[in-house]
Amino acid sequence: MTDRGAMPVTPKTAPPARRAIGEAGQRAGLGWLEQLGLAAVTLGLCLEHYLLVLLGRERLDLPAFAAALRQSGLSILPVVTLVTAAVGIILGRQTAAVLEDLNLPGLFLLSISYAVVMELIPLLVGIMVAGRAGVALAVRQATLVVSGQMDGLLVSGIDPIKFTTAPVLLAMLAMSFAFAVWGSLVTLGAAFLWLVAATDLAAVDLIDALMRSLTAGNLLQALSKPLVFALLIALIATVNGSAAERDPEGIGRAATQTMIGSVTTILLIDLLFVLWSTQ
Known about the structure:
Elements: H1 16-26, H2 32-55, H3 62-72, H4 77-101, H5 105-147, H6 149-155, H7 160-198, H8 203-213, H9 216-242, H10 248-277
Helix pairs in contact: 1-2, 2-7, 2-9, 3-7, 4-5, 4-7, 5-7, 5-8, 5-9, 5-10, 7-9, 9-10
């Protein structure tokens, strides 16, 4: 008979990946190397799960995936639309003010179009997904640890990563891609409508500037950025949530660390994209 007051111990016969998750949930204060290891384990388990689902050997938790879609995407769609529309109107207003003094509409429109699609929208999408889906995933993982449900999943033979992170990661990837496309369309559309109404620029000139400012490689990079951001946000949230301390304050710390870590990582990865594209 086991002592119910004792700290649960992950069975040594468990698979190494599952044992690592259990050990992370039993102690806090993971070092940076251990955090990288847990992130690598999380990514490996998610990829393994997706591959087995494609092969028909495992099933994707469709209710959890649908809930994750609502949480990471559909619930913030109005906010994304409002923010990107506001940004587009601001850019259109400022561009119109500059064009009144300068006779360089083509060059200015090229710069604005490139900046919106390549930098502004991917960053906005990444930060919004981090604040909604990333924090929610960290809170869920930390709640499993604090309440002891993580140990229950391990004892029952259920992989916590496949149970929690796998469907959320897939939903975050799908919604980040959709938001990147939708946000760019809304922002550029709002800016162009303002310019057409407030200046003597023709719509054909705006469309021509947009087509000349972006190549196929630029579009590929612009669409890949939110996917990379979503992947890293999910890994950061899983690591912080799984390493939460076994007290209610651990949930708040996991959420805070996830938001700060996600925004910092997004900015650094975007910097790497910029440095790589300029070479």
